[in-house]
Amino acid sequence: MNEPVIGRVCTSRAGHDKGRAFLIVGVCDDNHVLLSDGETRKLSRPKKKKLTHLHIEPPKSDEIAKKFAECKEILDADVRKALQLFGYNNG
Known about the structure:
- By secondary structure, this protein is an alpha+beta fold.
- The protein has helices spanning 62-69, 76-85; strands at residues 8-12, 21-27, 32-36, 47-50, 54-60.
- It has one domain (8-85): SH3 type barrels, CATH 2.30.30.
- A five-stranded antiparallel beta sheet has the order 4-3-2-1-5, with helices on both faces.
- A hairpin with an 8-residue loop joins strand 1 and strand 2 (21-27).
């Protein structure tokens, strides 16, 4: 499994959001991450999810990761744009 880092794309393997793509926007501990997709889960209320319920994908949004590292403002539109750029949630 790829390492859970901020900006990496992942898809849900369990729960009512199964199959949906998210960006990792925070790492809580060794077993949990915070996720946002900019639509159903906004950055103001990210979803906390166990790593065992996720499939971490290879793509990583360097732009989002860079903004987090520099403490710059990130918009839900930035998250949606990054996911669409990688071809996720286009439906």
